[in-house]
Amino acid sequence: MKNLEKILETVSLYYKVPLKDIKGSRKNGNIPKARHVYCYISRINNYTFESIGLEINRNHTTVINSFKIICNELEIYTKIQEDIKKINDLLLSQNFKRIIVEDVDLLALTKIYNNSYIL
User: Fold this and answer.
1) For residues 79, 118, 3 and 18, what is the CA-based torsion angle, rounded to 10 degrees?
2) CB distance 9 to 63 below 8 Å
3) Where in the chain are the domains?
4) Which residues 6+ apart lie within 8 Å of 31 measured at CB?
5) What Å distances lie between residue 34 and 17, 37, 46, 95, 115, CA to CA?
6) Residue 36's pLDDT is what?
7) Residue 33 reports pLDDT greater than 80
8) What is the model's pLDDT at position 2?
9) SS3 breakdown of the chain: % helix, strand, coil, rounded to 5?
10) How far, CA to CA in Å, does 6 sit from each of 21, 39, 40, 49?
11) Mean pLDDT of 57-63
12) pLDDT tens figures, 69-112
């Protein structure tokens, strides 16, 4: 799961949250946001909920919930849209090959995944 690790490390650096906190049980500060964004970015890159959860010691239903939280926030908050685009830019600058969100409208993509997030 090398690419999932790269996504996790990039999200960790962006939000300035240690990897152990994202993988752990703490819920203060930016930790939940970093965890949710990791799940969202990983899912839009076609990783399974199960494999995403394994990377952060969570089950697939927790990952689905995290994904849905970010989907909902994308429709309301421009800050989360900016964060995800910046993280994607960081991943692209690291030659991350699997990223599918370059100049894609995140809201349109979210609506597609929102309608089929369990697939």
Assistant:
1) 50
2) no
3) 2-115
4) 17, 21, 22
5) 7, 5, 19, 21, 23
6) 97
7) yes
8) 79
9) 70, 0, 30
10) 16, 13, 14, 17
11) 95
12) 999 999 898 999 999 999 988 988 887 665 555 444 555 556 55
- Which tokens belong to 16? 């300035």
Topology, domain 2-115: Chromosomal Replication Initiator Protein Dnaa; Chain: A; (1.10.1750)
Amino acid at 52: I
Q: How confident is the model at residue 116 (pLDDT cuts 50, 70, 90)?
A: low
Whose tokens are 């830019």? That residue is 89
The whole-number average pLDDT for the span 3-25 is: 94
DSSP H helices in 2-77: 2-15, 19-23, 31-44, 49-55, 60-74
Give the length of the chain.
119
Token pair recorded at residue 92: 């692209």
